[in-house]
Amino acid sequence: MTERTVYCGLVNDQYLGKEITLKGWVQKRRDLGSLIFVDLRDREGFCQVVFNTERLSKEDFELANLIRSEYIIEVTGELAKRADDQINPQIKTGRYELYANSLTIYSRAKTPAIYIENDLDVDEEVRLRNRMLDLRRPKMQANIRLRHKVTRTIRNYLDERGFIDVETPMLTKSTPEGARDYLVPTRREGGAFFALPQSPQLFKQLLMGAGIDRYYQIVKCFRDEDLRGDRQPEFTQVDIETSFLSQREIQGYIEEMLKEVVKETRGISIQEAFPTMTYAQAMEEYGTDKPDIRFDMKLKDLSQWAKTSEFGVFKNTVSNGGQVKAINLKGLADEYTRKTADALVDIVKPYKAKGLAWVKVLEDGFNGPIAKFFNGEDQVLIKKRLEAEKGDILFFVADQKDVVASSLGALRNHLAKKHALYDTAELAFLWVTDWPLFEYDDETQRYVAMHHPFTAPQNDDVEALKENPADAKAKAYDIVLNGYEVGGGSLRIYQREMQDQMFELLGFTDEEARKQFGFLLEGMDYGFPPHGGIALGLDRLVMILAQEPNIREVIAFPKNGRGHDLLTDAPSIVSMDQLAELHLKLKGSD
Amino acid sequence: MTERTVYCGLVNDQYLGKEITLKGWVQKRRDLGSLIFVDLRDREGFCQVVFNTERLSKEDFELANLIRSEYIIEVTGELAKRADDQINPQIKTGRYELYANSLTIYSRAKTPAIYIENDLDVDEEVRLRNRMLDLRRPKMQANIRLRHKVTRTIRNYLDERGFIDVETPMLTKSTPEGARDYLVPTRREGGAFFALPQSPQLFKQLLMGAGIDRYYQIVKCFRDEDLRGDRQPEFTQVDIETSFLSQREIQGYIEEMLKEVVKETRGISIQEAFPTMTYAQAMEEYGTDKPDIRFDMKLKDLSQWAKTSEFGVFKNTVSNGGQVKAINLKGLADEYTRKTADALVDIVKPYKAKGLAWVKVLEDGFNGPIAKFFNGEDQVLIKKRLEAEKGDILFFVADQKDVVASSLGALRNHLAKKHALYDTAELAFLWVTDWPLFEYDDETQRYVAMHHPFTAPQNDDVEALKENPADAKAKAYDIVLNGYEVGGGSLRIYQREMQDQMFELLGFTDEEARKQFGFLLEGMDYGFPPHGGIALGLDRLVMILAQEPNIREVIAFPKNGRGHDLLTDAPSIVSMDQLAELHLKLKGSD
C-alpha cells in the first residue's frame, strides 16, 4: 500500500508533473479502447484518471479493464494539465488529469442499489436501507461534515469561555414527569429499571450546586414520544448551564455563539442583535410560539369589528368568547380560483378550525363567498386593519382563541412556503421571552409546568402565583430560527422553599416530589447558586443550516418515521434467554 | 445581582485597591467579634474576605453574622494586601484579602454531610450519595476539568488532521457476540428491543465504506458485564477509524495524540517512541498482555533446569507439560519473615496457582523452606538466570502455563506496588502487537475471536488459518499504560470473502452471520476500503493521568461497584403502567 499523496478533490498546481498516488471510489468509467477514463472520487471531490497502454503494464491495463462503478482503487501516476478543450470548469479539479502508471484494486463492488449522486429520485426508505451508499453522496458527506463544524465551533466558543464539558449518566432514573422514558431493564436488580435521560436537566443543576460554574455537554437524549417529521427517538442536545449570570448575560453568550456558528458554517456575519418578542406577542401576531419572521403576513385581530358585523358566524363566535382574525396574502389573489381558495380549508382543519373564510380585494370592493357580509364601512375598516389593497386575498378564521392562533399560524406558514415569500437561504433568529409559567392540562384538569418544574417564576410572590397561575410568567427564553424552536432555556429555581411551593402548585404531594426529585431537593438544602441555562436541539439547528427539509438528512444513521432503523433492522426480537436474565417476559407469552 | 469581577482563586495585583465583586461558597468562617473572616471558595480557588463594622452597614454585618460553612454569597469590597505576617504562602491568593462593603446571601446550607476538603476519610458510598458535595472538593473539580482537558486535546488533535466527528446510534441492534447487551424495550413494536451499543464498531466500519476516510467520536458505550473495580455499566470510548492507512501509520497518529495529551495535562514531553512488545513476549516476560514496564522484575523461565531438579514438585510439573518460572524481588529479602513470605500465596491463589515457593539469597547459599532442594550447581544456575545476589528473595510458581503467567504476573504487580518500586507519577506507554487471532473457549469448545470477528489476520492464507488457528496472528495492537490496557485496535477485514471465511472459522452458520451482521456483509458487497482504527478507554486514561485508584474518581456521576447510582437511586422500580405500555411483565408477577 503506497501512501496517499493528496485527496482526489484537492489536487492542484503544486503536484503538476509529479508522480502522485490517489485512492478512492470509481464514480464513472469511459472506455475508448486503448484509453480508459475514470472519475475517481473521495470525500474531498473528484479527479480524472487516464489509463493507457503506453504507461501501464499489460497486467495493470487488464486490471483497469475490470474496473466498474464504485470499485475502490489506488492509482499512482503523473498529474498533468488537461488540453484546453478538455477542461471541466464545473469541478474544482477540472483542469487536471492523472496519467496512471500503476493500479491496485482494493475492492470490487456490486452495482450500487442507489446512484451515488446528489440529485437522487428514490424513496427515502431505500436510501435508509442502503445508508452506506447514501452517505457516499457528496451532499450527505457535506451534511455530516457541516454537523461536525457546528459542534466544533460550539465547543471552541464554550471552551474559550471557561465552560467545562462534563458527562452525565445515560443510565439514570425514570421520572414520570415530562415525556415517556425509554427504560433499560437490569439483570442484577430484578424488576428494577434504568431510564435513558430525556435531558441532563437535574444533573446539570447539581453541577451548578457543586460549583462547576459553567457547564456544557453535547449529548444524546431520548424521548419515547409519538414521532413527527422532525423528531427522532434519540436526538442530540447542546446542553449549557451557568451560575450567577442574569438572563440577559446567558442569552448574550448563546446569541454570540450562534452568530459564530453561522459565520463558520455559512460565512454570514450577523451584526444586529437577534430580535426579541414576548410569548404573548408571538401568539397574537403569528399564532405560534415559534414565529418565522422571514416574512410578514401577521395575524390581525378583527374581533372588535366582528361584534357588530352582519356576518352571523363571526358575530356569534365573538359573543361566545371566541376571536376573529385574518391574514393578508398580498398581491396573490389572482393565483386563486374559488375552488383553490376553498381548498385551503384542508390546511386549517387539522388545527380544529371549523372553517376558513376568504375574500379577494378588487378595485371596487370585496369578492368571494362571504363578500356580501361586508358593507362599505366594513370593507374600509378591514382594508385599513390588514393594509389590504387591490390584488390581495384575505383569509379569516373565527373560532376559539387557540384554534384561531394555530390554524391561521399554520396557514401563514403554508402560504409563505407555497408562494416562496422568503429567501430559503435566510437565517432569521428570534428570542421568544416572558413565557407563561404554567399551562392548563385539560385532561388532568390541573396546571402543569410549561417548561419544567424547575423554571423560575418572574415574580416570586407565591401568593400571587397561587391566585393567578394562568398569568404567572417564567424567566424562560426560547431561541427560534426560521420558525423552528432550536433551543429553550430558563433561569432555575435555586431555593428549596420556592421549589417546594412550586411542586405544591403543580399538585405534587411531598411524597411524590421526594420520590422523584429527592436528590435535587436534598442538593438544594446544601445550597444552590442562582443558575440558568439552555438546551439547543443540534439536529434541528444543523438541518436548518444545511437547508434540509428534515433532520434525518443531517443524522448519519437515523431511524425512519416509525422509529425503526432500516439499516440494521432494529428494534428486533431478542432471545427468551436474554429476557429471562432480565427477569422479564412478554405479555401474553405464558 | 452584580457581575462577578473575577473568580476568587484568580484575584491578583491588578485588582489591588479596586472595588471588586466575588461570588462563591463559604469554606470557613472565623469570628473575632467586630471582625469576621471568611475563606470564600469558587472553582478556581480561595480568597479571604474580611467583614467589619466600619465598612459594612449594620444590616449587612448582621447578615455576615449569619454566614455558615457552604453558604453561597456575593461580596463587593476593596481588595487589599495582607500584612506581611498574615500572608498565607500555601495558597495562590494568600497575599490578598477583600474588605467587604456589601454582602448578599444567595443560599443558606445545611451542615454538609461530608467535609469539602481534599483529604477526606469517609466511606466512598457516603461520597457517592452526596455526590454534589463531593464534587465541590477541589480534587474532584480538578479531576473533572482534567477529563475535559483530555477530550479537548484529543478533539483538537483529530480535528486538525481531518478526522470527522460522526455520531452513531445509541438505540441499535442487539448482537449476541461479545459481552451482554443492555436492552431497551419498545412501545411501538411490541416484543422488539433496541440494544445500547457495546461499541460503534460496525457503524464506524460502514462509515469507512461510505468514504468518510477519517472518523472519530467520544462516545458512551455499554456492557452488561459483571463489574470490577475499574468497570462501569456505561463507559466512554474515544473511537477512531481510518481508511487506507497502514498499522504503522495508525499507531503513529495515536501515539502522537497521546503524547499531546500527556503534554497538555501533565506538562511532560515524551520524546522517545513508545516501546513495542509482541503479545508472546509480554506473556513470557510479564505474565500478562498489559505489562507495567515502570519496573523490571521479569518472569524467568526455569523449566529446562526444573526437568533435572531434585525438587519433585518442579520436576513433575514440567514433565506434565507445565512450567516453572520465577521472579526476583531485588534486595528486599530482609523485609520478609518466613511467615510473611508464605502469606504471599494469597496473592497467587485467585489465579489458581497451587502454591508459591520462595528462597532468600544469602552470602553463602539459599535459605527458606525449599532451599534444600537446590544443590550448589542449581544455585549458580538460578542466580545467573535471575541476576540474583545476596539480599534478594526469589518467588517460584510451578503450574500450567497460563496459571504461571497470571499468578506470577499478579505477584510481580503486587510486590512492585507494595515496595514502591516505581515512581507513581511516571507514565509508561507500551504497544502490544501480534496478538493471536483466536482464543480457545473451553466452555463452548471452539475458537472465538480474541478481539472481534472483523479483525484482519496477518496471514490471509485461509487454509493456514484453518489448520493452525492457535498460531494465527491478528493485525491487532493494544496500547498499554502503567499496566492498564487503555486502548485496543486493529486493521479490519475489508473483503467479503475473507469475512465469510472468518465467520465460518468461528463456527457461524451463514444464517447466523447474515442475521446478526447482514448489514455489514451487505456493505462489504458494495466495497470497503482497507481500514482500521482503535478504541481508547477514556475513563481509564483519565484515571491514570489523574493518578487516581479507580475510574469512579474521574466520572462526575458514577455507579457504585454494584452498578447502582446511589445519588438518584437508579435503577428503580417503575409503574406497572409503564411496563404494560412496553408489552412486558415481570417474571412471577401474574
From TrEMBL, chains A, B:
InterPro entries: Aa-tRNA-synt_II (IPR004364), aa-tRNA-synth_II (IPR006195), aa-tRNA-synth_II/BPL/LPL (IPR045864), Asp-tRNA-ligase_1 (IPR004524), Asp-tRNA-ligase_1_N (IPR047089), Asp/Asn-tRNA-synth_IIb (IPR002312), AspRS_core (IPR047090), GAD-like_sf (IPR004115). PROSITE patterns: AA_TRNA_LIGASE_II. GO terms for biological process: aspartyl-tRNA aminoacylation. Its EC number is 6.1.1.12. It comes from the Bacteria. SUPFAM superfamilies: Class II aaRS and biotin synthetases, GAD domain-like, Nucleic acid-binding proteins. Residues 201-204 are annotated as: Aspartate. Keywords: Aminoacyl-tRNA synthetase, ATP-binding, Cytoplasm, Ligase, Nucleotide-binding, Protein biosynthesis. L-aspartate binds at E177, R223, H451, R492. One of its GO terms (cellular component) is cytoplasm. It is an enzyme of class 6 (ligase). It catalyses: tRNA(Asp) + L-aspartate + ATP = L-aspartyl-tRNA(Asp) + AMP + diphosphate. ATP binds at R223, D224, E225, Q232, E485, G537, L538, D539, R540. GO terms for molecular function: aspartate-tRNA ligase activity; ATP binding; catalytic activity, acting on a protein; nucleic acid binding; transferase activity. Residues 144-558 form the Aminoacyl-transfer RNA synthetases class-II family profile domain. It is found in: Cytoplasm. Gene3D superfamilies: Bira Bifunctional Protein, Domain 2, GAD-like domain, Nucleic acid-binding proteins. Belongs to the class-II aminoacyl-tRNA synthetase family. Type 1 subfamily. Homodimer. Catalyzes the attachment of L-aspartate to tRNA(Asp) in a two-step reaction: L-aspartate is first activated by ATP to form Asp-AMP and then transferred to the acceptor end of tRNA(Asp). PANTHER family: ASPARTATE--TRNA LIGASE, MITOCHONDRIAL, ASPARTYL/LYSYL-TRNA SYNTHETASE. This is Aspartate--tRNA ligase.
